[in-house]
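Blackboard transcription, Thursday session:
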Amino acid sequence: MDISPNAIPDVVVRRLPIYARSLSYLAEEGVRSVSSQELGERIGVTAAQIRKDLSYFGEFGKQGIGYNVEYLLGHIRRILGLHEVWPVVLVGVGPLGQAIARYEGFRTRGIDIIGVFDNDSSKIGLQLGRNTVQPDSDLPKILQEHNIRLAIVAVPAVRAQEVVDVLVQNGVQGILNYAPIVVQTPDNVWVRHIDPVALLHSMTYYLSREDEHHAMNEH
Amino acid sequence: MDISPNAIPDVVVRRLPIYARSLSYLAEEGVRSVSSQELGERIGVTAAQIRKDLSYFGEFGKQGIGYNVEYLLGHIRRILGLHEVWPVVLVGVGPLGQAIARYEGFRTRGIDIIGVFDNDSSKIGLQLGRNTVQPDSDLPKILQEHNIRLAIVAVPAVRAQEVVDVLVQNGVQGILNYAPIVVQTPDNVWVRHIDPVALLHSMTYYLSREDEHHAMNEH
DNA sequence: TGGTGTGAAACACTTCACAGCA
DNA sequence: TGCTGTGAAGTGTTTCACACCA
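(Written on the board underneath:)
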């Protein structure tokens, strides 16, 4: 999915949920007010970055004081569309899919998994959290009936593209893809990707460099 | 962890594992040679980007031909330090941790989970893949004995910081954090973060905008 | 006083466009 | 001919630094 000119930069959009997450912890702790400095330290981001990011959306702070936690959190939630609950489907019920289906953190943050699907008939009927596993063949019906726009894909890499095709054909516009493959979609569909191995590999890069460094310093 | 000046940009380092992944699929398919154009189409990246990225590390292609798949893959693996197998520990054996422990995709890509830990005594002794769950109290010993430099954290948010502190105190320099919280570490430690909910929220942002857009266009 | 909001400057990253080569 | 490797140009992102305000 591409960004139209004059739109908010995607980097900013990706940071907003982190701000929201941190603000909700602050709210739970009973903190009323927070400065960009304090929030930045929690999140590992500069104060200027936070102020600049927020300035795309309005003026939420008070000079000399900072930001009211509840007020800013409410605004960010609304900006992200989280004043509504988003129904999503999950496809793929291997160990990872089961963990996702059982995780409470989706529902508490505005994401409601309303259906879980697998093509393995031995899994159909399995109860996972509030959901019962349904066959993939029921996907189109459910997607359309509930007007689903978001989906989580946790199938093996070889199946990911076909599953994504079905999702997109039935109106899904945002996909969280756990399969270690880049899926092809029309450019009005958003895809975010989770590949823990790739993330680890990006760290092994630096750790190997460090070795060499030390070796060099020893001479 | 910060980047020293003149170093390879971190964005580039993060793309290398994606290139490696795609190249290994090509190799499995028996493809011998690939152009930056073809590889880019698979990955959703421009050809120029790939050529530029690779040029940080050397010259791996042949004019008029493209890249030899095996040769380039070998080089990228070496650049990422993947000519060695990296032993890692996993802390946290809830449903997610269990899925991680059982996932075969780590070992096949150079990441070997050599220990899994939890502080819940009812889980100690549980067999997960090739590992048996050990108590957190054994962490320091194992980290030091095996010279572990990478860890995966899959504990609840409230426990993440204390776990990370123990890891760092015992020599861990790279952490893959599944807990929905930004952990504090010394700046010689790398942290990568996985928060599926935050990724979904960054998509609900765009999907909400689209609604408004349509509403606007209807007038 | 202590903090925000924001243009402008600095920096980082991507894309272009083409020389050069098999 | 068809593709790489790469300076230079273009674009995007972050940081600076300060006017402004409760």
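Lecturer's comment: Chain A touches chain B through 62 residues (CB under 8 Å).
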